[in-house]
Specification:
eight-stranded antiparallel barrel; Lipocalin; 14 helices; single chain; 2 domains; 9 strands; alpha+beta
């Protein structure tokens, strides 16, 4: 029970092995939680605070140490553990000839650091869900893509996007758990909620092949360490039904500047990452959905009535890789084309917050059924300039358009291979149960 006593802070006198454990965890979590990378501070000081975007704060909240280039890897954790082990051994040697520090106070400081670091990560994700930013409602292109053309993770996010009330509920749970972490008496409750909630996020990332499994486990480990502080007492009281001594340690802030600094730091954290972040997340552009308006009144799915390439008319064929099958115009400036031309899956941006519409690739991430194009409109010359949004398929199409009526669009110009094309599109009056409502009678 000595290790459990160490976790619960229930030791009257620290033993040698307990001090060794705490020294290791102090250094390990300090390396994991406190920004030591100069790039973090370069990013911090490059923020335009007068024109603050919620993405600036979100990127700050996503920090954890990376010792290797490329994507996230557990090797970073091994390096942190190695540094902690070496540091703990050196610390132990130095301490042999000196008076030991107050380990109760060191343990308290460590929990404070982890509480606020964990709250930072949870709060920022919670507000993204509350304002329906993390998993937006499926686009028209998504609704007209075959189920089998989606990756497992894209199916998961689309399933969350079609249930906005549930997504808001998940965000509220995260925000409440994050707020509980800000107060010492409720921190263990918040940590337990996060263990259940973010533990499920970690398992979902593993099951659906998501890209956030390492970061979610990073938050889970912090929550586990924080909850372990009260876990032995809870087990003893609730499961074993034995008398249990409460935590009697009280932090002492002896001087006025210590009390003022504590109050100012906590107030600044709440102001910046709760009120200001929430306000900016509510008012700023969504980070996954483009905002530039598309061709006026064109949103919908279109059947490709005629398709002419190099003056050769191609009839409809289920096996022709050149002929377009259908075209979707979104409300925003995205056009997607379904054809048998192979689609290379776009690399996922993870939880980056791009501000440029052409860089917002959520539409095509995890989808192999369509080619997605961001387009600019020259309404005077009636020209659409299309850029493939997939960074693995850089190509540009310049197409003149005509609109003889509200349901027909004619396109002519050059395709990705510089072949001349002439396309006639007819709008399909399609209804979607997700939009119309599945509990009302519909005439399709």
């Amino acid at each position: 029970m000595a290790y459990l006593d160490f976790l619960s802070g229930n030791t009257a006198q620290w033993k040698a092995h307990q001090k060794a454990l705490l020294r290791f965890f102090l250094i390990y979590f300090f390396v994991q939680a406190v920004p030591l990378d100069w790039k973090y501070y370069a990013q911090l000081f490059s923020i335009q605070w007068g024109n603050l975007h919620y993405g600036d704060l979100f990127h700050l909240s996503r920090y954890y140490p990376r010792f290797f280039p490329g994507g996230d890897t557990y090797a970073n954790w091994l390096v942190a553990a190695g540094l902690a082990l070496v540091g703990a051994l050196i610390w132990g040697k130095v301490e042999q000839n000196r008076q030991s520090p107050d380990y109760d106070r060191l343990y308290y400081v460590q929990r404070v650091i982890l509480r606020y670091r964990l709250a930072l990560g949870i709060l920022t994700y919670g507000f993204l869900k509350i304002f329906l930013l993390q998993a937006p409602f499926p686009s028209l292109s998504h609704l007209n893509t075959a189920y089998g053309d989606f990756t497992a993770w894209k199916i998961f996010t689309l399933s969350l996007g079609v249930a906005p009330v549930y997504e808001i509920f998940l965000g509220v749970v995260e925000v409440l758990a994050g707020l509980l972490l800000l107060y010492r008496k409720t921190a263990s409750i918040g940590a337990f909620v996060i263990l259940c909630f973010t533990g499920n996020v970690f398992l979902s990332n593993l099951a659906y092949e998501g890209g956030e499994s390492i970061y979610s486990l990073y938050l889970v480990v912090m929550a586990l360490f924080l909850f372990a502080f009260d876990a032995p007492r809870l087990i003893r009281l609730l499961s074993l039904e034995k008398p249990t001594a409460p935590n009697t340690f009280q932090p002492v802030f002896a001087t006025h500047w210590q009390k003022s600094t504590r109050l100012l730091a906590k107030s600044a954290f709440v102001l910046l990452f709760v009120f200001i972040y929430a306000a900016r997340a509510y008012s700023d552009d969504p980070y996954k959905v483009p905002q530039a308006p598309g061709l006026s009144g064109a949103a919908g799915i279109y059947n490709v009535k005629t398709f002419v390439i190099n003056r050769d008319t191609l009839p409809y064929s289920a096996s022709d890789p050149l002929r377009w099958k259908d075209v979707v115009f979104e409300k925003w400036a995205t056009l997607s084309v379904r054809s048998l031309r192979p689609v290379q899956l776009a690399p996922s941006q993870g939880e980056g917050v791009p501000r440029n519409d052409r860089e917002k690739t959520y539409e095509l991430e995890g989808s192999a059924g369509r080619h997605y194009y961001h387009y600019g409109i020259d309404s005077l010359k009636q020209v659409l300039v299309l850029h493939n949004k997939n960074p693995r398929t850089p190509e540009q199409l310049i197409l003149h358009y005509e609109r003889p009526d509200t349901n027909t669009i004619r396109l002519r110009g050059l395709n990705e291979n510089r072949d001349s094309i002439w396309v006639t599109l007819e709008k399909i009056p399609r209804k979607y149960l997700l939009v119309e409502g599945r509990r009302r009678s519909q005439k399709l």
